[in-house]
Amino acid sequence: MNLHSLSFDGIVEFVTVADAKGFSEAARRLNCSVSHVSRQVSRLEQRLGTALFARSTRSVKLTETGQQYYLQCQELVSGLDQANERVTGTQFDLQGTLRISMAGSFAEQFVAPSLVTFAKQHPKLTVEVDFSSRHVNFVEDGIDFAIRYGRLQDSGLVARKLADRSLMAVASPDYLLKHGEPNHPKALAKHSCLITNNDTWLFEHDGKEMPVKVSGRFRCNNANALVEACKGGLGIGYMPKSSFQQAMNEGELVPVLAPFWTRKITSWVVYQNRKFLPLKARLAIDHLLTHFEGWQE
Q: Which residues does the UniProt record annotate as the domain HTH lysR-type (predicted)?
């Protein structure tokens, strides 16, 4: 490799434009003029001999080559940030956009408020939260990290424990009056169950796991909507305790099958396995882990 031929000019500007999805916003984040950013990116494209962005009057999008180059340069810039931070012993003013995917009442009630605190500590940082339980592609969707609970299937991701939680099965008094109370998880086959993303519910008995296939009249991937369905007498729900706590306190729901509940369902911070995690993501994750240390439901 010819080290004299290496040039880092324009790379920071290129990564910032890609993150900001525009030259004007990139210039604002870098505290420089739009013409400077445009000039630096154009010179970079000239040196590489290829277009990195597809420009129009309304949008700026990465080309296929630009997307591949961005993934490499993002690692480079993140690694440089980490190196500078270790040498100086200081934290940089976080800028840009932090994108997080999460779902469920735990995320709404506890994780989101903690991220609000983090955002207040870094006034130049934009935080975007996507409440969705869908499987995300961290690269294509531009997600820095996600909050998920339960068992994780993708071994290619890094998962760090956020909190241990407990599941709870509940029903409305009206539903139990009409249909009776199940005395064993297997009895759920005769009941209408309210299903989120999984129609196999995991219970425990004598220290052993007991998966039970369930079915019912209402399926929804939103915890609040499912709680309302449960309160309305549509069936039995089985979700983390925090989802039902308010309705339980108000007497609208009552517990069922308590001896069989699974008491250790973990919430995780999940992110792409990469050599350099962006500083904004790394500090946000550290903030969450510190906030939930010793947390109990």
A: 1-63
